[in-house]
C-alpha cells in the first residue's frame, strides 16, 4: 500500500544500510548495546534529515503538516525504508481521518499591528470592538466581567488550556479573544484543541507576545479605552493521514517495547528538529537493528498529527484492545532530540523532580537513561517534566509506562544548564521552534547522535530483557490541568501546538 506523494525524485532506498533482504532473524546475533550504537553515524542522520527537508521544500507550502503532500511523502519514505529491510519487520500504514485547520490572524489595537498568531480550530470572524481585560488567567467563568458582552477579551496565557479560555470568553458574550503570552518568545500561536467545547462557544481567537500583551494590560488597568480590530480567517477540512507501524518478526510478541516519534510539522516550516529528529532517530535505529536478533519484540510507531493534539498517538492507543495494551511493557517517546541550544533532558518517570510520576516502569526507564548518560556516554543530563503532553501521554493515560528524551523547545536555557551543556544561557533551546527556520541547518548534530545512541542503548537493553522493569499493572498516571498551546510543554514538551501548563 502506498499513499499519494509529490516527491518521486528521491531514491528512497539508497539510504538503507546494506542488510540482507531475506533472513531468519533467529539466525542473527543477539543485539548488543555497544554494537548497535557503533553502527549509528551522524552522516546517516543528516542525510535522512535532508530527505525530509526536501519533501517539505518540494511543496508550495514548504512544510510537512499532516495530510499534506510533504507529510505524505514522509510516511511513504518511512514505509519504504522499513520494507527494504526484507523479512525483518511487519510494517503497515494505519489510516485515520482528522479535522485539519489553518489560516491566519491579524490584530490592530488603536491602529498598531500586534503581530498576532492563529489558534487552530478557531472560527473565522472580523470585529472592531473595545478590548476588555479578563481577570487572573481566565480559567473560570468568574474571571470574565459582564462588560465583555459584544467586546473582545484580553486573556493571559497560563494554568488552563487555550480552548477553555476561548469557550469561557464566548460564554461570557465576547465576540473574539486575544491571548497574550506569559513567557518571552517571538510569537504565540497554538490550537484550541477541538472544534467544539462544552463550556461555551469557541470564538475567533488570536495570540500575541508577552511584551505586547503586558503593554495592553497596563493601559487597560489604568482605565484607558482601547479599540481593537481583529480578523481571523480559518480553514477547516477533514484529512486522511497515516501512522506507520513496524514490529520485529522476531522476539516475544507478548512482551513488546514501543518507540514513538511524530512525523508531522506545523504549517510554518519543514519541522526538521520538531520532529524530523525523532522521526529519523528511531528510523536509523530500526534500520541498524535489522542486523541483530531480539528476545523481546520491538515496535516502532511513527505517529501523525501530533501538532494538532496528539491525534495519531491517541488513535493508535485507542485501536489497541486491553489484551494488546497489556503486551506493551514500556513506551519510549522521542520528540525534538537535536535542538541547537540543547540540553540532555530525561523524562522524570519517578516524579522526584516535578512531582508527577508515570505508571510503574517509568521510573526504571528514567534510570536506564540516567545510567547510560552518566556511565556509558560520560555526559551530564537534567530531569524533564513528565507531564504526559507529548505522544507518550495517551500511553500513560491507559497505564502503560513510558519514558523518553528531550533537548528543549522554546524554553530558555538557564545558566546552570549552560554550565552543563554549553550553548547560550538566556536563549531558547530552539529559537526556530515552530518557525520556518526549523530546517537542517537548525540541527545540533552532536546532540542528535548522542541521543540516538541512547535510544539504541534502550532498544538493545530491552530487546534482550525486561528484567529491570516491574510487572505490568493497570495503574494510571495522575494528571494535572493542561493548557493547549501549540505543540510542546514549556518544560517537558508541548508548548506550541497543544496542551501545556
Main sheet overview? 15 strands, mixed
Total of helices: 12
How many strand elements?
17
N- to C-terminal distance: 40 Å
- Work out the strand percent: 15-25%
Mean residue pLDDT = 91
Taking pLDDT < 50 over at least 5 consecutive residues as the criterion, the unreliable ranges are 4-23, 477-501
Shape: elongated
Instruction: Please estimate the helix content.
Output: 25-40%
Tell me the series of helices and strands, N- to C-terminal: HHHEEEEEHEEEHEEHEHHEEHEHEHHEE
Structural class: alpha/beta
Backbone CA Rg? 23 Å
Structure description:
- The protein has helices at 33-38, 42-57, 69-83, 162-171, 210-221, 272-289, 311-319, 322-326, 362-376, 393-397, 415-421, 445-464, and strands spanning 89-109, 112-113, 117-120, 125-133, 152-156, 176-180, 190-191, 205-208, 227-248, 252-262, 296-303, 328-334, 345-347, 382-384, 402-406, 483-484, 499-500.
- It has 501 residues and is of the alpha/beta class.
- It has a 15-stranded mixed beta sheet that branches.
- The two termini are 40 Å apart.
